[in-house]
Design goal:
InterPro entries: AAA+_ATPase, P-loop_NTPase, Signal_recog_particl_SRP54_hlx, SRP, SRP54, SRP54_GTPase_dom, SRP54_N_sf
Keywords: Coiled coil, GTP-binding, Hydrolase, Nucleotide-binding, Ribonucleoprotein, RNA-binding, Signal recognition particle
CATH superfamily of the largest domain: P-loop containing nucleotide triphosphate hydrolases
GO molecular function, one term: GTP binding
Number of helices: 13
Strand content: 5-15%
Oligomer: single chain
Strand order of the largest sheet: 3-2-4-1-5-6-7-8
EC number: 3.6.5.4
Protein name: signal-recognition-particle GTPase
Length: about 350
């Protein structure tokens, strides 16, 4: 299971504080020490752990407790919110170009699962978003990559543009764009060669492809099992190519979680998708909040937190109603009410 080791450690730590009717500074200190050790053991970036613990401490000590939550539950709420924030708050939407086709460029190290992920992404775009993608075999350095993408295209019944291994990857990408326009395909997914981020020539080639096709998304595919190394790779590719997001592969087998918990904080780019198995339909949109809840084993506490938040909103709504009746409703109150309406719309979509 994803994050199994980390989840066990954090859930044991949280269990100790969960039912406490009063949480002292010492309690928070002990809990954050345990959390810090658990995150470091999970191969989370040291600086990321340091910042995370600092934020949790600041928010957990002496903060106002919501009605219907015990102080212990309130502290868990803080940990959950900061964990969600660490992985990127909301799930990220995939870009859609104003004028089709939308271009996605797939980059990453060799062996990260990039070609398979390219097929999985095309499958997801068609199934979930009803799009018609074109796969582009621009990895001319690994002959098997062209064959692999062709095979995936046949399995999924998705067209593949390939010109063998002798053509220039930049030209292949350009001609694929023309083909997509002619055939009214709305997504072009370019599978580039896996390379070391220290390989200057190949990195320059990626920059040229990017300059030519002007992708709407540049996705870095990284193997989540490599932990801290995945973060270093992400930082390097981001510096050179300004990626728009990350796709984590093999997240289902990552018992530690170091990559998933560090990449967003280090690169400031969201994790957009996660590979949760080998099958072609096992690519999922990455939901930071759900992942945080899962790590903390928070099903029961989550419902309590939601109830407490509803109570607060209800109480505030009654206060505002009273203000309106007594004509003491201010512009600030109006803005707050607009914010609540916007939140309701957000939950509907």
């Amino acid at each position: 299971m994803a994050f199994e080791g980390l989840a066990d450690r954090l859930q044991n730590t949280i269990q100790k504080i969960k039912g406490k009717g009063k949480v002292t500074e010492q309690d928070v200190k002990e809990m954050t020490r345990e959390v810090r050790l658990a995150l470091l053991e999970a191969d989370v970036n040291f600086k990321v752990v340091k910042d995370f613990i600092k934020k949790v401490k600041e928010r957990a000590v002496g903060q106002e407790v919501m009605e219907s939550l015990t102080p212990g539950q309130q502290v868990i709420k803080v940990v959950k919110e900061e964990l969600t924030s660490l992985m990127g708050e909301d799930e990220s939407k995939i870009a859609v170009a104003d004028k089709p086709p939308t271009v996605i460029m797939m980059v990453g190290l060799q062996g990260a699962g990039k070609t398979t992920t390219t097929g999985k992404l095309a499958n997801l775009l068609r199934k979930k978003y009803n799009r018609n993608p074109l796969l582009v075999a621009a990895d001319v350095y690994r002959p098997a990559a062209v064959d692999q993408l062709e095979t995936l295209g046949k399995q999924l019944d998705i067209p593949v543009h390939q010109e063998g291994t002798q053509a220039n990857p930049v030209d292949i990408a350009n001609r694929a764009m023309e083909k997509a326009k002619e055939e009214h395909l709305d997504y072009v997914i370019v599978d580039t060669a896996g390379r070391l981020h220290v390989d200057e020539d190949l990195m320059n080639e990626l920059s040229q492809i990017k300059e030519n096709v002007q992708p709407d998304e540049t996705f870095l595919v990284v193997d989540s099992m490599t932990g801290q190394d995945a973060v270093n790779v992400a930082e390097s590719f981001n510096d050179q190519l300004d990626i728009s997001g990350v796709i984590l592969t093999k997240l289902d087998g990552d018992t530690r979680g170091g990559a998933a918990l560090s990449i967003k904080a280090v690169t400031e780019k969201p994790i957009k998708f996660a590979g949760m198995g080998e099958k072609l339909d096992e690519l999922e949109v990455f939901h930071p909040e759900r992942m945080a809840s899962r790590i903390l084993g928070m099903g029961d506490v989550l419902s309590l937190i939601e109830k407490a938040e509803e109570n607060v909103d209800e109480k505030r709504a009654k206060e505002l109603e009273q203000k309106m009746r007594s004509a003491s409703f201010t512009f600030d109150d109006f803005l707050e009410q607009m914010g609540q309406v916007r939140n309701m719309d957000h939950w509907k979509t």
